[in-house]
Amino acid sequence: MAINVGQDGQEDEVIAAINTTPLVDVMLVLLIIFLITIPVVTHTIPVQLPKETVNPLQTKPDSIEIAVNKDGDLFWNEKLVDRPTLLARLKVASVKLPQPEVHVRGDQITRYEFIGRVVTACERAGISKVSFITQPPVHGG
Prior knowledge:
The protein has 141 residues and is an alpha/beta fold. 34% of the residues lie in helices and 13% in strands. The radius of gyration is 34 Å and the shape is rod-shaped.
């Protein structure tokens, strides 16, 4: 028995075509990965804070509520005050035993500068506990 290795002296041709099936498979996997990760990346850009879920605030009768509206006006327990009056009242409150907690309620579009002034006034007066009041996020939809 004889094995026919070649056909009458002809050589095998080199295949110059690239098999693209593995390339297509890899590209489809990458496309799926990008389609999954793009919505996560785009949801991190628009910022609308503050909304946070935390333990319910235990409001004590001796706590102080300072509200700051979008124009930077300060309100001490719903009464309009200026910055020197705020600092004076905070100094009086800081020497009480037990020291009352200060709850800062800032409008969502208030410039941070106005909130920072309240925090600085609390720090200068010696208030040890300052909390920020936020709105819980709306679930569903």
